[in-house]
Amino acid sequence: MEKVFILSKDELNDLLDFIEEKTNKRVIILLRGDLGSGKTTLVQEFVKRKGSSATSPTFSIQQIYGEDIFHYDLYGVGLEKFLELGLFDEFEKDGIHFVEWGDEKLENLLKIAGFDYMVINIEPKNSKRVYKVVNA
């Protein structure tokens, strides 16, 4: 299934509501899009809604917010290093796991391991973003 949202940053609540409705106690959300497309912004808004603040984990690879929001950025490290560091095992923890730059290889591993996941493709469109949510 694919659901499409065309939203500005101020309208993200529609997408955030959808994410909350479609997720259970453990889900991985792969965020895909070009640099500056809004992957980190989406996570920041989700975390802010939960009463915290978020930063990009580009240099630390992983950030944890509260007890159940996990945020990973594979841009600088790639899947191989992510796996070497044992971070795939983190997906066993209950919570929502946002993965920026989660590619098809990671998606295939998630399928094989039997994890619940969704993919959100983000593309800029004028002053808004197109969010294509797949597997929700």
Description:
It is a single chain. The chain has helices at 13-22, 39-49, 78-84, 104-113; strands at residues 2-7, 26-32, 62-65, 69-73, 95-100, 117-125, 128-134. It has four helices and seven strands, in the order βαβαββαβαββ. It has a seven-stranded mixed β-sheet with strand order 1-7-6-2-5-4-3, with helices on both faces. The protein has 136 residues and is of the alpha/beta class. The model has no long low-confidence stretch (mean pLDDT 90). It has one domain: P-loop containing nucleotide triphosphate hydrolases (Rossmann fold). Helix content is 28%, strand content 32%.
Q: What's the total helix number? A: 4
Question: CATH homologous superfamily name?
Answer: P-loop containing nucleotide triphosphate hydrolases
Q: Output the structural class.
A: alpha/beta
What is the terminal-to-terminal distance? 6 Å
Uncertain residue segments: none
What kind of sheet is the major sheet? 7 strands, mixed
Specify the CATH class. Alpha Beta
Computed Rg = 14 Å
Number of domains: 1
Helix content: 25-40%
